[in-house]
Amino acid sequence: MPPPSTPPVSALRLDPAAQDLLFRQAHSTHAFTGEPVTDETVRAAYDLVRYGPTAFNQQPLRVVLIRSPEARRKLLGHMSRGNREKTARAPLTAVLAGDRDFHTELPAQFPARPEAAGFYADPGVRERSALFNGGLQAAYFILGVRAAGLAAGPMSGFDAAGINKEFFADSPHFVLAVVNIGWPAEGVRHSRGPRLDFQQVFSTA
């Protein structure tokens, strides 16, 4: 299969090797080597991508790193059958969640607008905002994983109510995605699926 079409190098400031690392050669991965993923590596990935924008700098993403056998056993019980085995084998799994009470952090995180927390007095508004902006941060997080040379396998096939009860029963957090993380195994990639062309996605009004 021919490689994806690329824009002229002059159109992008990002180094071509970084473009490949983050996008063109990166794949969603479900098979990893046995090499562990350290907290230091995860921290470096987060420290890079935490600067991605969210509304009013609200940053609702919360992450649980599944490291203990007991936590993994609990998580596996709520994964869909197709995702259970790959999650059992992954060196590290992250449960990405949104925080419904992100607004309590806004006085410190968005001091330019002291009244911003009041914009989210309605719980439904907070949940919708946490869902959208937490989703943005989840995408940034995957890019950070790739920037570290790791591969990510994000999944939505799980029992959300079960995970929320298991991991977030006493908190305002709710699961957004589950992501397997590790160093990609050789020779197990599937062919990349097609992508929509610019003309199929963009219009001008």
Topology:
Blueprint: H1 16-24, H2 39-49, E1 61-66, H3 69-76, H4 81-89, E2 92-99, H5 106-109, H6 123-147, E3 151-155, H7 160-167, E4 173-182, H8 198-201
Antiparallel strand pairs: 1-2, 2-4, 3-4
What does this structure look like?
InterPro entries: Nitroreductase (IPR029479), Nitroreductase-like (IPR000415), Nitroreductase_HadB/RutE (IPR050461). This is Malonic semialdehyde reductase. It comes from Streptomyces klenkii. Residues 24-183 form the Nitroreductase domain. GO terms for molecular function: oxidoreductase activity. With 205 residues, the chain is of the alpha+beta class. It has one domain: NADH Oxidase (3-Layer(aba) Sandwich). The protein is built from 8 helices and 4 strands; from the N terminus they run H-H-E-H-H-E-H-H-E-H-E-H. It has helices at 16-24, 39-49, 69-76, 81-89, 106-109, 123-147, 160-167, 198-201; strands at residues 61-66, 92-99, 151-155, 173-182. It has a 4-stranded antiparallel beta sheet with strand order 1-2-4-3. It starts with 15 loop residues before the first helix and ends with a helix. The model has no long low-confidence stretch (mean pLDDT 94).
